[in-house]
Design goal:
This protein has one domain: Beta Barrel (Lipocalin). Helix content is about 20%, strand content about 35%. It has 3 helices and 10 strands, in the order ααβαβββββββββ. Strands 1, 2, 3, 4, 5, 6, 7, 8, 9 and 10 form a 10-stranded antiparallel sheet that branches.
Length: about 180
């Protein structure tokens, strides 16, 4: 009898904890309206705070050798102090993001920067407003004459964002950061 009592208690505890973790993170009306305006104006910048590369043996070796920035691990690299950015201004997209990971094909000759760089008009741009005020999802393709990138951007009402980039020449990488209004001069 004592065994069944403990079993029921543990089961109820799991149910209670499971239901408590199901609480929804809801955005305020002000946050949703601010994000709607930001997307409608299409003039914003995402400043990447973290890079999240696909972890490989090579990247683990670099991390184990202590060659990553302080506070970083092989699967989460701190970008404080870098000039990384991702901008959308009107119908143009510009990115200058550091890259951590493995290339599947060689870099362009005389390439001064091994990062992800592109600038221009995206192809097949899709902007979808997520249900229940969860933000926006932007998908597009763009190339820089040597690489083609499939880009997926998720922007949440609290202005946190995630950029996923799949390259024709490199392993996949994602970035997380914050969205800011970009004022053109």
């Amino acid at each position: 009898m004592d065994f069944f009592f403990k079993y029921r208690f543990v089961l109820l505890l799991f149910i209670f904890v499971g239901c408590a973790s199901q609480q929804k993170n809801t955005a305020t009306t002000e946050e949703i309206e601010k994000l709607d305006k930001l997307i409608a104006e299409m003039a914003f910048e995402i400043k990447a705070r973290w890079a999240r590369p696909l972890v490989s043996n090579s990247l683990n070796s670099i991390a184990n050798a202590g060659l990553l920035p302080l506070g970083s691990t092989a699967n989460q690299i701190d970008l404080i102090g870098t000039s990384s950015h991702f901008r959308i201004i009107g119908d143009s997209v510009t990115a200058n993001l550091p890259y951590f990971g493995e290339r599947q094909m060689g870099a362009a000759y005389n390439s001064a920067n091994g990062g992800i760089q592109f600038s221009g008009m995206p192809r097949n741009l899709k902007i979808v407003k997520q249900e229940n005020g969860k933000g926006y999802k932007l998908d597009f393709q763009i190339n820089n004459n040597t690489e083609t990138y499939d880009v997926n951007v998720n922007i949440h009402p609290n202005l946190q964002s995630r950029i996923n980039i799949n390259s024709s020449h490199r392993n996949v990488i994602s970035y997380s950061g914050r969205v800011y209004t970009y004022f053109t001069k």
